[in-house]
Design brief:
heterodimer; A: 486 residues; alpha/beta; Alkaline Phosphatase, subunit A; 18 strands; globular; B: 1136 residues; alpha+beta; ten-stranded antiparallel beta sheet; two-stranded antiparallel ribbon; 41 helices
Chain lengths: 486, 1136
């Protein structure tokens, strides 16, 4: 906490009253900084896993991950996977067997309504739905042959996050934190950002859980634009009083420990109070974005008149700030427009009105994410930050109910950028209608095996013994996609 | 990165080579080993070869060949399948240095001493005796007669599952339970019971001494938390301390008895049990639907534990409580307790309308197997879904043997009322109904002409369809006489068409057809008092339970759930059948009832899992196209409102009637005509054509008279019933209490008896009826079924197949296998669980896993002694717990004595009591106790975190677990959790410091203490608070510090005042700035927006600051601060 930004009235009982400037600074970020479900410092954690930064298995390509999660499922044939055949065959039935869909209201082949263009020096095709992202084409590697095993949201989300379709398993962010620890003293290893009314994907916070891993690795849900960014972070009393209270508690604890003899668990609990104090009383400069200049604000679209886009931009900017502070794994959440089935938990889920729904969602995330990529690159952070853009599945190349698209886990697109990934390239392919992945199919296990590899970990060695066996993020599967790496 | 045992790890291209070094070592070793081979193989004695064959070869084959054989993966280039193979060495050199076990990388790896390689990879460490065998073998020169890699036949022989099973069965947990006598100890005065003798003997052999006894108050708090989960009251603590001073042992025994007898005991220990059964009130996933009445299972556990029901009985109830020959009645509640035990099968997670229903079924059945096998057997059968267990004596077939049992059951909401209550008044209602029929039909016979006269004045409402019976009248009467002839013919043709169309529909090719009015009903499963009568002939009727109208309706033949009362439940399920496309038709009626087809027992509804709500008292044909589910198996289910497995309604009164179900092959085939009846049906014999309204009325009269007569005689046909129903529903026949004076007293009696019919006591459960043996899935892939596995128990314990037949799942047999005397697991597991909660760590510290990946018992003899004693004591959990808590060991001080802290840091030998953090429930319940508002009501529906009920009653919504509980490691209910985490994270500190609810509780505590001690001194209050929070008196220093803290709490007032002034000033400035900027429509004004946001925050700060000032000005403020501080002291959340 820097005195300049000062919650100095919090810092000690003897501090002078809050100056107006201090107070203003405090206002800008609320009382609090980060409450950390799993904040870590050197010795403050009990449990089998040490949360301190650990050496990776081998030289990592990236230290941090930013996971732009497109909950609900983005249509790949409208974004990153051009399929001219869809225009040619528009209105015809699918020439290949169609798998069961959740809505069982399958129409005929429906072409995209966004023009694809070759972008950047690489010529990577990206549709007009994402014009800003298109400008970063040379940094992006599109995996066009992504597959999932589940065509419903909750199982799909959990599978995408944890490698298993049910709650109770650690999220990839938790695994990363467990495997590598945190490089941040005052922040958790895994942060999920929210802003505005962005929702938690179906499946609930279990998507971000630590499962059977120590709770310290669980995601902290941080609402980037709220005064109380994290639950219970704000003291409900004068800081001076709380400090006095903590000192008094400390006295009681000291006697308790003295009577108890050495007990590391009790000592850790005591240390956690100091840590909690530090967290809530240190300057919340993470959420305080006053220092960001106008160019940066414009780059992300922070002042966009569309409030949901501005809110998403806030997440993107906060993500960069988290990465700057050494947070291992950051995940972003989209905001919904309630169009055609795309609601709070699954904003991209356009079973109807793809044009309108995807149009709005594309607008929301496009400039902010492109801004994030650009900003990371300009600051030299993209080299050691892996940005992943993915939903739980893609959408069908044929229509649902006329103007929507149903879920398609059999072949869809995700992309990665930064972190030693070959920009301006594609990997794998779907069939000519974009329905099934036919060339180099990529599984969720492969995706995480690759991400862990990029972080310097062998996915087969990152295990935790639970329930009678050594469990992995990649279960018993997974191959590193070496081709996409530099 | 340099690794010693590189050849043993997975290949990793990222690693740097260190080839020179390797080469040197390798050459050296090769030389050495060559020398050994020359000497040792030739010198190998027959005894040595036998040693290899018996002790080494099977382990190599079973544990190593997969990765290290010519036929296997050749990991690290190392082969262990022949002597030349290992003599060659791997990529990083020699694995076996004959004669030198200590430095042989293989031995280092299997001892798990290497930095990197721990072999077998990803596996459990080999048993100590096996490791010793290997050391011995290497030290004797590694005699190995295998000159060449084994043939496939040899590999098959050596890795044969039976051989593996036999070896793995030698693990301690599969051995029969022994009855070792308590050992002699040197310090014979120390032990208070046999438990102490075992523990002390071990301490003595380790040269350790037990700690002194704990302070009586500290001990009493410990006892209270362990047995009741609540802190003791100061009065009880004082009383205990006093009697303990006289005779500690009898004081402990008396206190334990009192607590064991308290209802709080069941609440505490039921919550432990709920952890093992992954208790939840919802299924998770999208929508997170409720598990209806899950809480009744929780209450069942509380009652059962309070009543100390013997453990085997509870196990039986969990596995097959709904099927027990002699169930355990609860007379007071009128329920069958045993049936509630099976509710845990329903605590599974369910996905949201999965397109692969079979995969979903496999997943939730897997979870049932996982839960039952871990909770009751302490082994992980679920690990054998895709292949034989990697480490334990569990085959893949074992998994599918159990799978067949559980998948043979259907998820259901069941009625746990005792049979006599389910059938209460059924006979008397039936009798009365006969009398009512006589009386009513008598009155009707006299009123036939009157009824037809009413028909003459009938003015059909154009918005309402005319009942078929009245069509002839409405159509003819609207026409001039000259057109009657033609219309009459038309009516006749229409009726004929109807009949022939129905016939043609029924004559179609079908995959399945069930006429439930006949024998086919027997092929279906029926549950509920409403279905006791099975199918009934035409002319059955329903009597309204209230109101002026008497008879609601008269029915054609069929199966009706409400013939005596619509409080009766009904659940009707067809046999399973494969979907082959086509269309399913069901003729059905009902009120607030539901009909659906069920795919692979998936209980939820959704677009691809359609469900029909029945809300019409006339028959209709439902239909569903089944092409989507081609290749899956389905069944049909029809249920009253609350009797589906989930997504139930809330109506206590509901019914359905069903007649036939046809599954036709051609989904575009003939559709049935809408059910109806015509006057023609009753005039078929009469060839005359009515010319006038009077003649038509006469035909109606004759027809109606025939209907009423046949109704009276109980000999109606379906057409007559439909025809009569039309007149009854119009109330053209007398149908009120007033117009049926003779029947009225009978109806009154009927209604009185009907009112006594109890509403079912519904609970989650499963239904039997359609059992099968499951095919094993190759590699766990449900799309690759292989050989059928008969339903049975585990290979390792009792492989004999059950013979439950096609109608029974085999759960009863499974229940008996689990509690059988020859099963060494069950009782050891429960005894260890009880120990775990008393001492904080089990004798086996992995209570859910006694298998290879679990820990070995620290005191195996003690575990067996306790298990034997448990059995001898009638499998009473309370007796075992009493034995443990009255031991001397449980009474020890929490500080490690002498050098125990260094010599036994984990306190394995229990020289002292291991202090530990309280679990989430105990912390929350303690806070509520302090407020004085803890509501000690037992049982009932779940509550939210802000309620004043004990935490065991909190709602467990899978997607929305209580954040306070979760912060303190309340487990995610996905699988059994016999041992909770006790993590330390700042979120806990923040919750205790800042959560508004916790602050409120602390304030309530302070105010209560102040109110209760109005006349008392500060000193007294302080002592009271220490006693309530910590069950002890404060030290002098604590008194002084605490009182100083109370006094100083308000010191911040001036500073707070000036801060408030600053905030107010700032808010005003901001307000002025904001109002100075004019707002522009449709133009973004980021600066203004930012200012506005600041203003809002400033206003909020002002508000908070004012509230803070108000709080600080209260005279209780200091004490409230003290209360908040005390609950944040670690002593509050630790038990020691």
């Amino acid at each position: 906490m820097s005195a300049e930004h000062g919650c100095s009235a919090h810092a000690s009982p003897s501090s002078p009253p809050l100056s107006r400037r201090d107070a203003l600074a405090r206002l800008s970020s609320g009382f609090g900084l980060l409450a950390l479900a799993g904040l870590m410092n050197d010795s403050a954690y009990a449990g089998p896993a040490d949360a301190k930064a650990k050496a990776p298995n081998f030289k990592p390509r990236a230290k941090n991950v930013i996971f732009c999660y497109m909950s609900g499922g983005v249509s790949h044939v409208d974004t990153f996977d051009p399929k001219p055949r869809l225009i040619q065959d528009a209105g015809k039935p699918m020439p290949v067997p169609v798998q069961r869909t959740q809505f069982n209201n399958n129409g005929t082949i429906m072409p995209t309504q966004w023009e694809f263009k070759n972008r950047g020096q690489s010529g990577l095709p990206i549709s007009e739905l994402l014009p800003y992202t298109a400008k970063c084409a040379d940094d992006i590697c599109v995996i066009r042959s992504m597959t999932s095993k589940f065509s419903e949201h909750a199982q799909g989300n959990l599978f995408m996050h944890t490698g298993f379709p049910f709650i109770g398993y650690p999220s990839a962010g938790a695994w990363s934190s467990y495997g590598l620890g945190s490089e941040s003293e005052n922040l958790p290893g895994y942060v999920v950002l929210r802003s505005g009314d962005s929702g938690v994907p179906h499946g609930g916070v279990g998507n971000f859980g630590s499962g059977f891993l120590p709770a310290v690795h669980e995601a902290s849900l941080l609402t980037a634009d709220k005064a109380e960014a994290l639950a219970n972070i704000r003291p409900r009393e004068l800081a001076a009083l709380q400090r006095r209270k903590l000192d008094f508690i400390g006295q009681l604890d000291k006697q308790f420990v003295a009577a108890n003899g050495a007990d590391s668990s009790i000592e850790t609990a005591i240390q956690n109070y100091e840590l909690a104090w530090k967290m809530q009383s240190s300057v919340p400069d993470l959420c305080d974005i006053r220092g960001e200049n106008a160019a940066t604000r414009a780059l992300y679209g922070l002042d966009d008149p569309e409030p949901k886009k501005a809110a998403y931009a806030r997440q993107c900017l906060t993500a960069r700030r988290l990465v700057e502070r050494g947070v291992r794994f950051v995940e972003l959440t989209c905001l919904a427009y309630n169009i055609g089935g795309g609601n709070g938990a699954n904003p991209w889920d356009h079973h109807g009105e793809v044009k309108n729904g995807h149009g709005k969602m594309g607008n929301q995330i496009d400039q902010p994410i492109a801004g994030l990529l650009t900003d990371l690159k300009a600051r030299g952070l993209l080299e050691h930050t892996l940005v992943i853009w993915a939903g739980e599945f893609g959408r069908t190349p044929f229509s649902q109910g006329g103007n929507g698209r149903d879920h398609n886990p059999y072949g869809f697109s995700i992309w990665m950028a930064g972190g030693g990934v070959k920009g301006g390239t594609t990997y794998g392919a779907t069939d000519e209608h974009g329905y099934y992945a036919v060339e180099k199919p990529c599984t969720v296990y492969d995706m995480w095996a690759t991400v862990l590899h990029i972080l310097g970990m062998n996915h087969e060695n990152l295990t935790y013994r639970y329930s009678g066996r050594d469990i992995r993020l990649t279960d018993v599967h997974g191959h590193v996609l070496k081709e996409i790496l530099i | 990165m340099i690794e010693r045992n590189r050849w043993l790890t997975t290949e990793n291209t990222e690693r740097t080579e260190n080839s020179e070094n390797h080469f040197f070592v390798r050459s050296l070793c090769a030389l050495c080993s060559l020398w050994f081979i020359c000497c040792s193989v030739h010198a190998a004695t027959p005894e040595q070869i036998e040693f290899f064959e018996k002790r080494i070869r099977p382990i190599l084959a079973q544990e190593c060949y997969e990765c290290h054989s010519a036929a296997g993966k050749k990991k690290g280039g190392l082969l262990l399948d022949s002597r030349p193979g290992w003599q060659e060495g791997g990529k990083s050199g020699q694995a076996i240095l004959p004669g030198n076990a200590k430095e042989s990388p293989l031995i280092i790896a299997i001892r798990h001493e290497g930095d990197e390689a721990k072999m077998p990879k990803n596996g459990a460490k080999l048993d100590d005796n096996v490791i010793r065998d290997f050391e011995q073998w290497v030290n004797m020169g590694a005699p190995d007669p295998r000159d060449a890699p084994p043939s496939p036949e040899e590999i098959t022989r050596d890795t044969d599952w039976n051989a593996v099973l036999q070896r793995r069965k030698t693990r301690w947990c599969f051995q029969p339970v022994q009855n070792p006598p308590p050992p002699a100890v040197k310090d014979a005065a120390w032990p208070k019971n046999p438990v102490d003798q075992f523990l002390l003997a071990k301490m003595e052999s380790e040269n350790l001494r037990p700690a002194a006894d704990a302070d009586a108050r500290v001990f009493f708090r410990r006892l209270s938390f362990v047995l009741t989960g609540l802190p003791p009251t100061p009065d009880d603590t004082d009383a205990f301390a006093k009697s303990a001073a006289e005779n500690i042992q009898s004081a402990v025994e008396a206190a334990a008895d009192k607590m064991l007898a308290s209802p709080r005991f069941g609440e505490r220990w039921a919550r432990h049990w709920m952890d093992w059964m992954r208790y939840a009130d919802s299924h998770g996933s999208e929508g997170d639907p409720q598990i209806p009445f899950a809480w009744r299972y929780r209450d069942y556990l509380i009652r059962a534990l309070n009543a100390d029901i013997p453990y085997p009985q509870l196990v039986r109830e969990h596995i097959a409580g709904d099927l027990l020959e002699t169930p355990r009645p609860n007379k007071e509640m009128g329920i069958n307790e045993s049936a509630l035990g099976a509710a845990h099968y329903r605590m599974v997670l369910h996905g949201f309308t999965p397109t692969d229903a079979h995969d979903e079924e496999v997943t939730f059945t897997d979870n049932q197997i996982d839960t039952v096998s871990k909770a009751f057997l302490g082994i992980t059968v679920s690990c054998a879904r895709c292949h034989n267990h990697k480490f334990d004596a569990i085959s893949q077939a074992d998994f599918y043997a159990l799978f067949g049992i559980f998948a043979s059951c259907r998820p259901a909401t069941i009625d746990v009322n005792l049979p006599e209550r389910q059938k209460l008044n059924v006979d008397r209602l039936s009798d009365l109904k006969g009398k009512i029929r006589n009386s009513v039909s008598g009155a009707w016979l006299k009123s036939v002409d009157e009824a037809v006269a009413k028909l003459k004045t009938f003015q059909p409402d154009k918005k309402q369809p005319v009942p078929g019976a009245l069509t002839a009248w409405t159509r003819l009467s609207a026409l001039p006489p000259e057109k009657w002839d033609a219309e009459w013919k038309k009516l006749r043709d229409e009726w004929q068409n109807y009949s022939s169309q129905l016939q043609a529909f029924r004559a179609q090719d079908t995959f399945q057809r069930w006429d439930l009015r006949g024998e086919d009903l027997k092929k279906w499963g029926a549950d509920g008092a409403g279905l006791l009568r099975g199918s009934t002939p035409a002319g059955e009727f329903h009597i309204n339970h209230d109101g002026e109208r008497v008879i609601a309706n008269v029915f054609p033949s069929g199966v009706y759930s409400h013939l005596l009362s619509d409080k009766h439940r009904g659940l009707l399920g067809s046999p399973i059948f494969p979907s082959e496309g086509g269309k399913l038709w069901i003729r059905v009626r009902g009120s607030k009832a539901h009909a659906r087809y069920v795919v692979r027992n998936y209980p939820r509804s959704g677009l691809i899992y359609p469900k029909a709500d029945l809300n019409s008292d006339a028959d209709q044909w439902l239909n569903w196209d089944l092409n989507y589910w081609k290749g899956d198996t389905l069944h049909v289910e029809i249920a009253t409102d609350q009797d589906q497995p989930i997504e139930i309604g809330n109506s206590d009164r509901s019914y359905f009637g069903v007649t036939e179900v046809l599954y036709v092959k051609n989904s575009g085939g003939i559709a049935p005509p809408a059910p109806t009846v015509s006057l023609m049906a009753l005039c078929a014999a009469d060839q005359s054509v009515p010319k006038t309204p009077d003649e038509l009325a006469a035909l109606y009269s004759a027809a109606l008279r025939r209907c009423v007569e046949d109704f009276h005689n109980g000999k109606m046909n379906d057409d007559e019933a439909e025809f009569l129903a039309a007149f009854v529903q119009k109330d053209w026949l007398p149908n009120s209490l007033k117009t049926l004076p003779d029947a009225a007293p009978l109806v009154a009696d009927y209604r009185k008896l009907e009112a006594e019919v109890p509403v079912p006591t519904r609970a989650p459960g499963v239904m039997e009826g359609f059992a099968f043996d499951q095919a094993l899935f190759t590699r766990g892939n449900h799309k690759q079924p292989a050989q059928i596995v008969p339903r049975r128990f585990l290979d390792a314990i009792d492989p004999k197949p059950y013979q439950p037949g096609p109608a029974r799942s085999g759960r009863r047999e499974l229940a008996e296998s689990i509690v059988a005397a020859n099963n060494p697991l069950t009782n050891r597991v429960i005894v260890n669980r009880l120990w775990h909660y008393v001492f904080g760590e089990g004798i086996v510290s992995t209570p859910d896993n006694f298998g290879k990946l679990g820990e070995a018992p620290t005191h195996p003899e003690l575990l067996d002694f306790l298990t034997t004693k448990f059995e001898a004591d009638g499998s009473s959990m309370k007796k075992t717990i009493r034995l443990l808590v009255t031991s001397r060991a449980f009474r020890l001080d929490h500080a490690a004595p002498n050098d125990a802290a260094t010599r036994d840091p984990q306190n394995k030998w229990l020289t002292h009591y291991s202090s530990r953090r309280l679990d989430a429930e105990a912390i929350r319940d303690s806070l509520l106790s302090l407020t004085g508002k803890l509501d000690l009501a037992v049982g009932g529906g779940p509550v939210d975190g802000g309620a004043n009920r004990r935490s065991v009653y909190l709602r467990v919504t899978r997607n929305n677990l209580d954040p306070f509980m979760t912060a303190f490691d309340f487990p995610v209910p996905s699988g059994p959790r016999g041992k909770r985490d006790a993590t330390n994270v700042p979120a806990q500190a923040l919750a205790m410091l800042n959560a508004p609810l916790v602050n409120r509780w602390a304030a309530e505590w302070a105010r209560r203490v102040l109110a209760e001690s109005k006349s008392g001194s500060d000193d007294d209050r302080l002592r009271r608070m220490f006693s309530e929070a910590f069950a002890r008196t404060p030290t002098d220093a604590e008194v002084k510090e605490s009182l100083a803290f109370v006094k100083s709490a308000g010191d911040g007032l001036p500073s707070a005042n000036s801060t408030l002034a600053e905030f107010e000033l700032m808010a005003n400035e901001l307000r002025a700035k904001v109002s100075a900027i004019p707002e522009k429509k449709d133009t973004p004004q980021p600066e203004l927006a930012a200012l506005k946001a600041d203003l809002a925050k400033a206003d909020e700060q002002v508000k908070e600051q004012r509230e803070q000032l108000k709080a600080m000005s209260s005279p209780d403020f200091g004490w409230i601060c003290l209360a908040q501080a005390l609950i944040n002291a670690k002593e509050f959340i630790y038990v020691r």
